[in-house]
């Protein structure tokens, strides 16, 4: 009985702490979340595309088919830089490819957004248009 109570307490407190991690999601921040080590936001997005998106496409899309030319993603990134949720994933792909892309995106690590000197949970919009895959 004591083990069950201890286990319940541990699970409840862990879930409660996890839920409290993003009690507020900021849309406007002083510094947006960025991927990798590059604080240059443009380089950060190119690194993200090169390291996280293109490998999924290469493994998922047949060579004869054309790669999608547009991609729009909205991510919720927590205070630790983890992707908590994918709110939007707009791309012309088959459902299994979208699933693989979603799984890959959930594993990515970001530098969290900053608001008034504090790390905050934020919504990050990532639009890629007119992509050329070579």
Q: Any overview of this molecule?
A:
This protein has 134 residues and is α+β, with helices and mostly antiparallel strands. The chain is built from 3 helices and 7 strands, in the order αββαββαβββ. The strands form 2 sheets. Strands 1, 3, 4, 6 and 7 form a 5-stranded mixed beta sheet that branches. It has a two-stranded antiparallel sheet with strand order 2-5. A hairpin with a 2-residue loop joins β6 (113-115) and β7 (118-129). The longest helix is centred in the middle third of the chain and has 20 residues, at 41-60. The chain is elongated, with a radius of gyration of 18 Å. The N and C termini lie far apart (61 Å).
Summarize the topology.
Blueprint: H1 2-20, E1 25-26, E2 34-35, H2 41-60, E3 70-77, E4 83-90, H3 95-106, E5 110-111, E6 113-115, E7 118-129
Parallel strand pairs: 1-7
Antiparallel strand pairs: 2-5, 3-4, 3-7, 6-7
Shape: elongated
Looking at how many chains there are and whether they match, the oligomeric state comes to: single chain
Q: How many DSSP E strands?
A: 7
What is the N-to-C order of secondary-structure elements (H for helix, E for strand)? HEEHEEHEEE
Largest sheet: 5 strands, mixed
Q: Return Rg in Å.
A: 18 Å
Strand content: 25-35%
Q: How many helices does DSSP assign? A: 3
Low-pLDDT stretches are 3-20
> Span between N and C termini?
61 Å
> Share of helix among residues?
25-40%
Mean pLDDT: 80
Content-based structural category: alpha+beta
């Amino acid at each position: 009985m004591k083990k069950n109570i201890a286990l319940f307490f541990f699970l409840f407190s862990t879930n409660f702490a996890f839920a409290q991690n993003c009690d507020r999601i900021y849309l406007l921040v002083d510094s947006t979340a960025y991927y990798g080590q590059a604080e240059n936001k443009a380089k950060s997005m190119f690194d993200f595309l090169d390291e996280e998106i293109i490998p999924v496409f290469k493994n998922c899309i047949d060579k004869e088919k054309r790669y999608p030319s547009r991609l729009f993603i909205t991510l919720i990134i927590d205070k630790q830089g983890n992707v908590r949720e994918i709110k939007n994933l707009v791309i012309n792909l088959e459902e299994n490819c979208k699933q693989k892309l979603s799984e890959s995106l959930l594993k990515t690590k970001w530098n969290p957004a900053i608001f008034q000197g504090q790390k905050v949970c934020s919504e990050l919009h990532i639009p890629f248009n007119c992509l050329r895959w070579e």
